[in-house]
Amino acid sequence: MTDEGAFAEAPADDPASIPAPARPRGSVALEVLEYRQIVDDPSAIHVEVEQGRGGVTLRLHVAPDDMGKVIGKRGRVAQSIRTLVRAAGAREGIGVNVDIVD
User: Fold this and answer.
1) Which of 13, 23, 61, 100 has the fewest CB atoms found within 10 Å of its own CB?
2) Each residue of 44-87: pLDDT tens digit?
3) Is 44 within 8 Å of 61 (Cβ atoms)?
4) Is the predicted pLDDT of residue 98 greater than 90, yes or no?
């Protein structure tokens, strides 16, 4: 079951300038996950959103050439991404898990 309503994309201008009640729930976690400076091909980033009992699962797809950058040595970058996205979700009261899909 995919429900992207809770994670609708924020406007192109600075989302931090939008008052918190006007922003969709979970948009900050999605913005953190879609941060494009870590990859060479930002147009290949695709995030699937899946609502479940335990919270929300975000499935991250990147270009095959960028997979090593996203995972990092011994998975340290991937773990850091998961930690940041989980913290952003917790700040909004949402449990968020990140799966990196190849």
Assistant:
1) 13
2) 999 999 988 878 999 999 999 999 999 999 999 999 999 999 99
3) yes
4) yes
> Is the C-alpha dihedral spanning 48, 50, 55, 57 positive or negative?
negative
Q: What value, to the nearest 5°, has the Cα angle with vertex 90 and ends 85 and 94?
A: 95
As given in the structure block, the two tokens for residue 34 are: 């879609």
Q: Which amino acid is at 85?
A: V
pTM of the model: 0.70
Q: Which residues contact 93 (CB under 8 A, 6 or more apart)?
A: 25
Tokens of 27: 């948009």
Radius of gyration of the chain (CA): 13
Report the C-alpha gap between 88 and 102 in whole angstroms: 24
Q: 9-34 in b/e burial notation, b at 16+ Cβ within 10 A?
A: ebeeeeeeeeeeeebbbbbbbbbbbb
CA end-to-end span of the chain, whole Å? Answer: 21
